[in-house]
Amino acid sequence: MASGVKKVVLAYSGGLDTSVILKWLEDTYGCEVVTFTADIGQGEELEPARAKAQAMGVKEIYIDDLREEFVRDFVFPMFRANTLYEGEYLLGTSIARPLIAKRLVEIANETGADAISHGATGKGNDQVRFELGAYALKPGVKVIAPWREWDLNSREKLLAYAEQHGIPVEMKRGNKSPYSMDANLLHISYEGGPLEDPWFEAEEDMWRWSVSPEKAPDQATYVEITYERGDPVALDGKAMSPATLLAELNRVGGANGIGRLDLVENRYVGMKSRGCYETPGGTILLKAHRAIESITLDREAAHLKDEMMPRYASLIYNGYWWSPERRMMQALIDASQAHVNGVVRLKLYKGNVIVAGRKSDTDSLFDASIATFEDDAGAYNQKDAEGFIKLNALRMRIAAQRGR
Questions:
Q1: Is 298 a catalytic residue?
Q2: Which of 181, 221, 232, 386 has the fewest Cβ atoms within 10 Å of its own Cβ atom?
């Protein structure tokens, strides 16, 4: 039996893996286990997790509603940067992990635990995200990752262990989904099973949140999103909390076939992985935020943000949310949002998000009197362009004269 660990906080779902981990921690480390279950909008009833933990003798059980904190303090700051990983992925799984790591550490501090544990495998990104976050927030914490220690490396072995130790496991009736799924308020992901063949087209009945674009309504749906300092605060003129607004955009976006993605991505641990994602609300928010920035953000500020974004996205994907470099970048991004205020009107139609209008009564940098193709009444002297062009062409003219 391993020694030195008296109490462990386990990220616990109540499913097969974490139920086995709970018992395995007790047996292997001879420690007390505290369970932590986070509600970040996965859409599942969480009270059964409490009942299972109680049935296994757990004395300290945490089930926390983190939906508002998740969207307000993690999703929205990420969207201020218009963040996409490898040009497509809206980081729905990645952005949830630093919040879970933060709460694991907080509970460890509250309960006097000297270790935390998670059910992420040794092949994926989540182990990195959980642990980098934990070490950044509690440098001396011990992290126990059972999948890197035990030999229970198949569902059959896990079920046998559960039966041997009397661990209650709910055997769902009907056909079991062949996919590994992860859901929160920002997205739902699908991996494994048939998707491990990158040539295989995802089956229509796999998708949970959205109709196919072909089956979406023939009439477009219009929505208006109000922004204050870069964050959405109202939908169709109605003020909403962050979590409520995102949930409503998921609903209306999914009904219009928006937000599906099929991606082969590069994991931080080195392998390529194929996954499918549904992010209806996030897809809408990305389009809307870029639209409101287009009239309120200075050109060079906007271009600088675009240059930074891939680096910022990689930091989140790879688990460096709590790093000093991400915090520094966030400070710059947030400063750029001081005047990103206004309303964006969007048309949702058969999988498409189309900008139909944008306005800002207080912070628009768009000046029709200058941009017009009609008579600008002297607002812009077109003759000034000649010198501007010649100065910018000077280096090319010199090179051409030298035959380069």
A1: no
A2: 386
